[in-house]
Write a structure and sequence with these properties.
CATH superfamily of the largest domain: Response regulator
Strand content: 15-25%
Largest sheet: 5 strands, parallel
Number of strands: 13
CATH architecture of the largest domain: 3-Layer(aba) Sandwich
Radius of gyration: 21 Å
Oligomer: single chain
Helix content: 40-55%
CATH class of the largest domain: Alpha Beta
Distance between the termini: 27 Å
Strand order of the largest sheet: 2-1-3-4-5
């Protein structure tokens, strides 16, 4: 069952959204202002956020921007009485995925929610499930790695780092991105922590860790996975 968190300060609207989404089969959580909403989202990690723009303490745009900065990747559907094009563009630029202008019908709301959740499902299905780095084979689903049939013992964070690199499909992953996704927003490591774990990971999967073939450093930014390695 997908979990949806509604952040809406207007009581009648919030209860209406809760009732509509619950009747549609979703598990619904809620918050009455932006600051509480931020805390609940980071704690609960919902599958989708329905977010009002105009709220006390922390408005929807600022809340969405902070969520994206912290690495929260679930879709955000903005609700607002502002129908101007520039407001919609601003919401999307701050990391929103869709924009619904009040007043709206329940059918339209549910259709937008279904579309956003389908998009996430397609993206997850397209994510690599395995990776080959020379003689090393990594199975992300089983959380197993082998070299010529012999086990290679990777830590959970090393698996997570490899998976993030594989999902980036050759693009650079910044040290800050590693910290947000692998260590999480409630941890307080430094970028040096990323470098230390990368050195350990290279020692386990690279034939020559001092001159890595696959796990490349992008100086001043982070790391990338250098193909040809194969993903499935």
């Amino acid at each position: 069952m997908n979990r949806i968190l509604v952040v809406e300060d207007e009581l009648a609207m919030r209860r209406g959204l809760e009732d509509a989404l619950t009747s549609a089969g979703y598990r619904v959580l809620s918050a009455a202002d932006g600051e509480v909403g931020l805390a609940r989202i980071l704690e609960e990690k919902p599958d989708l956020v329905v977010l009002d723009v105009m709220m006390p303490r922390l408005d929807g745009f600022a809340l969405c921007r902070e969520l994206r900065r912290l690495g929260f990747r679930s879709p955000v559907l903005f609700l607002t009485a502002r129908g101007r094009l520039e407001d919609r563009v601003r919401g999307l630029d701050f990391g929103g995925d869709d924009y619904l202008v009040k007043p709206f019908g329940v059918d339209e709301l549910l259709a937008r929610v279904r579309a956003l959740l389908r998009r996430v499902e397609r993206a997850e299905n397209a994510a690599p499930t395995s990776l080959r780095l020379g003689e090393v084979e990594v199975d992300f689903a089983r959380r197993e790695a082998t070299r010529a049939g012999e086990p290679v013992r990777l830590s959970p964070k090393e698996f997570a780092m490899l998976q993030l690199l594989a999902e980036a499909d050759g693009a650079v992953v910044s040290r800050e991105r590693f910290l947000d996704v692998v260590w999480g927003v409630n941890a307080f490591p430094t970028t040096r922590t990323v470098d230390t774990h990368m050195a350990s990971l290279r020692a386990k999967v690279e034939q020559d860790p001092e001159n890595p073939r696959f796990l490349k450093t992008v100086h001043g930014v982070g790391y990338r996975l250098d193909l040809p390695c194969t993903t499935n």
